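Appendix B, example 12.
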Amino acid sequence: MDAKNYRLQQLFSGTQQFLIPIYQRQYSWERRDWQALWDDIIEVYDDGGEDVHFLGSIVSKPHVSSAGGISSFVVIDGQQRLTTLTLLIAALRDAFAERSEPRNTTADKLQNLYLTNQYGQGEERYKVVPTKADQDLYFSVIDRKTPQLSGQDNIVSAYQFFVKALNSGHLTGEPLSLSRLEQVILGRFEVVSITLGADDNDYRVFESLNARGRPLSQTDLLRNYFLMRFDGDRQSHVYNEYLLPMTQALESVPTAKSDTMFQYALQRQGIYVRDRDVYFQWKRRCDPLTLDALDATINEIQFDCENYLRIQDPSREPDERVRKRLERLQRLGIYTPTPFLLNVYRWYRSNHINTEGMVTILGYVESYLVRRLISGIPNNALNRIFIRLHDQIKPDSDFVAATHEALSQPGLRWPSDVDFTHGLTTYSLYKDTRPDQRRLILELLELSFGHKEPPILATATIEHIMPQTLTGAWREMLGPLADQIHARLVHTLGNLTLTGYNGELSNSPFSQKKELLAKSHFSLSVVPSQARKWDEEEIARRAGSLAHRALKIWPSPLTV
């Protein structure tokens, strides 16, 4: 058995072909699989680096070579991946042919070098020969005779998916550079090609690869790799001093995940890595290291693990002010800042920032998340944003000021006071947030009143002052546009409060509700308890007042 790493340009460029045997199932990847591959491609396209992205493994066995000199391999595992990659290259070929970018020979190069064996005859022309049931549709795509989609033709659907993705452009609205995509797909994506020996039974290998069983996790693979690099006493040292304590600590925190910790420990260094590539990325970085350097690296990972556990379980943090800030972030339930927070913890625990600085940075991160949440900005770019802060904040910076400045860049969309205020008055806070998120926001607003004897927040519930279901009395108060006003404002901040009377308030007329709210110890209920009526104007007035408080709780970005 022989295993080698190949970039796609190496895998497909020789005079060879991959044969899918009859016992393999038909092509079955679906849109979610194509989308996952395309997302990977765009992430690598965007990162501007040189790291290779691991796609998985291909297991094959040499087949009889042809008289024409074409080496054939029977594919035992990885046929879905191989088929998809060639359909992607076919879509890229046709995009080049249509745009002629950057030169009109590229489409022919993709065809003759990566999709076909230019001088092969019959089926030997094709780099990949699918199972019999898929051949007609697949060959028609490779031969540029694209059939019309009909029924459940996954082969054609996959090709059309990539055609559409290539033509749709980037999320930023800019067109995709086909030449750059070619470099990314062929030059920065890699597979492990495992070639069996002549005596290996290919079907038994296929059975074992596809049998049910618990696959090794990324952590399992890494732990085994680390231990295999050492011998004797040094192996025992690495296990007892680093790996075993990390395992036990991670298992003690229900929300902690060991694979995720190793992923974040890479991402905090500015390296984007998907969860399934964690082992390969760590191995790539550790392979060249001496044993002393590897020992030091594992020690660094253990330090990241300690900090990760404080983020996941704030009760582990000894400083009360830092702990409370971490608890607030935990309640938001947005974990994408964690790689950056691992670096913040490093600054803090190495005394590059003091407790005040730590609390301030955590406040900036919380404000960034809350303001975006209330302003309705999607979270799909957050992961990359926080990973890239590693490169944007220099080691000799004033870390507190540099964090504020980095997050304030216009492209990162930290909402201004104007945008945040607009969101606070119009956003459906109750409907479009998770329970912990909306409770946190209302509780912090309540605490901002500075009661000497604050009410008990743990037992409070969220009350809609204008009820979720309108009664006749409420319709009469709201007037002829009652339904429109209700639909627009019922779940907004201006109509929400905290109370211990939720069951008693229910859908009661406002005159009864305000009497109960007047007895409340919650400052959030003072304004509605003093209002003569509760209509669009009063809700807007209260929302504006609460927005003014929110601006002080969640600081604004710099004006860059």
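The chain is about 55% helix and 10% strand. The CA atoms of residues 332 and 437 lie 5 Å apart.
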